[in-house]
Amino acid sequence: MIRIGFLFFCLYANGILAQKPLVEAVEDKGGYRIEVTNPSYLPVSMIFNFQLQNLRVDGGVDTLVVRPNSRQTVHRLWAVSPNRGYSFRYDYTYHTGDYRVRRYDTAYVYELPFRGTVPRRVIQGYNGRFSHTDRAALDFDMPEGTEIHAARPGRVVEVINNNESGCSDPICMNFSNLVRILHRDGTIAEYVHLRQHGTTVKIGQKVNNGDLIGYSGNTGFSTAPHLHFAVYQQRFGHRIFLPTTFRTAFGQVILVQGKSYSPQKSE
Ligand SMILES: [Zn+2]
To answer: Distance (Å, rounded) from C-alpha 103 to C-alpha 22?
Structure first.
């Protein structure tokens, strides 16, 4: 009997996940189990593609979600004719986040991601023409080294802090230092362009409103020191960016490009 299994390769991964999912084909009676270990604090959405000889896949090959910090059997392959040899190849695509999340807490009011009485100007707002086309994201003008605080409680799921510098060309897009925080409703906030080694939280850490998470900088695709803040839902292969309301010194508002906001009034 011939049993040949090939792990092909991961086709595409969205989101820089330090702890990538591990896929294993485990020989089982009359076939194989495909097992995924997800060491991350984020769920992972995956699609497998099989090429099978004398094997069938249990339950089809729909998009599946692997829970955070778990090991799951995601597919079973059974020999169609057990007395004949069987073989398979597979590849897979994964994205960080649960692609099924649709509903979220639309009433949630976020804290501004900085403290104090100094107003910070929104230099690019929702759908801004420079780099926010079709996305609800905010760029706050601030000098490097400004304290960045969690705008909403959650769990830290990604931290990148080893990048040195930035540039005004999209080729620098992947060189941002950042913190991503998963909220209770499955949405994710990202705090981007932090300075080198400018994060103060670890992956897996729970944070509360207002906790210090790092210091602003100018890393990645950035023309001047600022903080990029956005909240999104992960779909399979793209993100849905969500407008959010903030608590400011002058009430609860949706922030507008060109205006300045502070959490507290100056005396
Ligand atoms: Zn931005």
So the answer is: 29
